[in-house]
Write the structure tokens for this entry.
Amino acid sequence: MKFALERKPFNEFWMNCMLNQAFSIAASAHPSYRYAAYLNIYSYFPWTAATDPEFRYPTIDSLYYLDDWTKFPLTGVIQLIEPGHFSNKETFTDNIKEVLRGGRNLSLNVDLYYWLPDSLAWRKFHWYHYSLFNGYDDERSSFYVIDDTLAGYNEYEVPEERLKKAFNNSEYNVNKNYTGPAYYIYNLHPSIEPYELKLSEVVENAERLARELKDFSMEGMWNVDTGPEKYSSHVTYALIGINIICNRHIANVALIRTLQEQKLLDEKLCEALSGQIEVIRDGWNEVKQAFVTHKFDRSREIGLAEGLLSKERVFWRMLADGA
């Protein structure tokens, strides 16, 4: 038997594993929710590497699900994200199938070391996250998940034996101090309200970002250890942070385009903003490429990043003042 929920991956740009899977579900349920992903409700953070607390790198995280569920723009489609634990770990694959047959997606804690070939962590280092299940095929003894690899954010087939290996070695199972659930289940509203992008929310976040960017500092970032034990992981962490920033600016380009298409902002202002954000996007892509090719110079990249953050502050101030 083959069963599929037929959720389509939201792969316009990358946010993080939980958000991309939530938007995959929401935008599949109602296409208007793609606009919710463009909402500029995010902040820059100085992140600490999970495997090396001395290495820090800049990245972006969205704010709406961290402290106030009512700010989450997907509440019109997702009623509840429900954490859970398996009563019997020996039969957890049967439980996953049961949830899927009930029309609900399930997101499972896995170890990326054993999870998807051609991903950053595959057979290189242990890294834990939640992966979204979209279906299964009994004849092939496999499951279908929506997740990301170097090939992009898409649906991938996972053999059942590999699934068992990845779950049994997940943080949920190997870390006695881990307090998270084995899985999350996405429960949708019986009737779905379309999403409406509101200029007032965009302006409010533009003003907040302009304030925050004034104070954000690149001090202490990207101190890559050139020794063989740490170099590779440091560059990988730096790239993960930069990649999320690059993707956020893909979203910002789409945000301005949508504001223009929906006639929420003056057309001339949108054209000026589009030019600015494209320069910022291209600048972060240049920084990313320096790390990808291992031709980065820390002082140079720090300087470029500081200039791009300053330009972004001007961009948000222009949007807020012109709205």
